[in-house]
Prior knowledge:
The chain is of the alpha/beta class. Helices cover 40% and strands 20% of the residues. The protein has one domain (2-159): 2-Layer Sandwich (Nucleotidyltransferase, domain 5), CATH 3.30.420.10.
Amino acid sequence: MKIISIDPGKKGAIVWLNADATDFYFEKMPLDSEGKIDFIILRELLNRDPDEQQHIFSEKPNTMGVMGATQAFNYGVDFGLLLSVVIDSELPYTLVEPNKWTKIIHAGIDSKYKPKAKSQIAVKRLFPKFLSRIPKTKPRYYSEGVVDALLIAEYGRRQL
Length: 160
C-alpha cells in the first residue's frame, strides 16, 4: 500500500509514502513552459503504479484572508483542475483541511512557532532518515512543498 499526498499549488509536491513509512519518493508539482501546473503530467504521475493499492490525500485549499481575490480565484481554478485529475485517476482520495492535519502532525511542538516552522520541526522529528533526500530552499529550510506533502502523507498513513 502506498499513500499518495499532494500539496497543491505551483510550489507544491506529490509524495508517495509506503504504508510502513520506511521509504518515500516525491515529485515537485509539474509545471509547463509557462509556469502553470501541467495536469497531463500530473495525471501520468498519479497513475504510475496502477497495480499497487494506493490512497490519495490532498490538502484542501483555504485561501480566506491569505490571498487577493485574483490569486484566490486562480488557485481555486487550479485546485478544481487538480481535483478532476485526482477523480480521473479512479484512486480513493481524501481531502484534508490544513488545520486538521497540522493539529495531529504538529502535536507537541511549541506554539510559539509559525505553521511552516512547525512543519520543518515535524519533518525532522518524524523522518530524520529522509532529510538527505528532501531538497533545501535555504540552508536551514527544506522545500515547503515536499515537507508539507510528506507530512500530509503521514497524516493519511495514520488515518488508514
